Amino acid sequence: METTAATDTFFTRKLAAKGQPLIFAGPCSAETEAQILTTAWALKDLGVDLFRSGIWKPRTRPGSFEGIGTVGLKWLQRVRTEVGIPVTVEVATPRHVEEALAHDVDVLWIGARTTVNPFAVQELADALAGTGVPVMVKNPVNPDVALWAGALERLERAGIRDLAAIHRGFSTFAPSRYRNAPTWQIAIELKTRFPHIPLICDPSHMGGKRDLILPIAQKALDLDYDGLIIETHPDPDHALSDAEQQVTPARLGEILGELKYRYRSS
Ligand code: PEP
Ligand code: MN
């Protein structure tokens, strides 16, 4: 494993400037230009650090909304230039990387259904090499720290140093109050292997329900996570994906106000 410390990255610079955990937010999926811009302006008022939006959605089963596609990247360009928040999208193929970068996307992320596949991760690492774009890697759907670590190692070996890890929880067959069980010790183990890589919690996909976002996010902050990524939609009940877990920007503001932050000196 290559262990070169990455001390000056998109994420560490933002953390140093803010002095507290980063907040990433935005809809599960881009649906319309109005939805994207309405959400982004509201999140700007909350001081959100990075605007998330799915453009290509890898769905577990066919027949549900699989993303608006390339046209949505033009809406995200307006978020960057008019609203002034950097943007991030999920990429699952080299073509997604090429299209996202052609539209000036600031940060890319690899989703849980892609992190499980070493060939797919390697193709992405090859496509990302030399681009300089920051990359976030979600945990794989299954509770396997080695697969998550392996994805980060493939990116590091391709020379990609601007990395963050997103903990979004793990599938279980057994009934659970969570959509994806946190199994916190897996993320803590990853952090011991990659202490230089910021760790972000995704309480939206862990909980799968609005009411679980606050307690999960608080637990992550108590464990000294470096940030949160929270799905936000102007009309969550009518969202085309992940309707039950998305919150309005107003509710996100309340959640951020209720969270207790520990003092961070670095
Ligand atoms: C998402 O972020 O909307 C998403 C599909 O997440 P995950 O890869 O964690 O399931
Ligand atoms: Mn989602």
UniProtKB/TrEMBL annotation:
<keyword id="KW-0175">Coiled coil</keyword>
<dbReference type="GO" id="GO:0004106">
    <property type="term" value="F:chorismate mutase activity"/>
</dbReference>
<protein>
    <recommendedName>
        <fullName>chorismate mutase</fullName>
        <ecNumber>5.4.99.5</ecNumber>
    </recommendedName>
</protein>
<dbReference type="GO" id="GO:0016740">
    <property type="term" value="F:transferase activity"/>
</dbReference>
<keyword id="KW-0808">Transferase</keyword>
<dbReference type="GO" id="GO:0046417">
    <property type="term" value="P:chorismate metabolic process"/>
</dbReference>
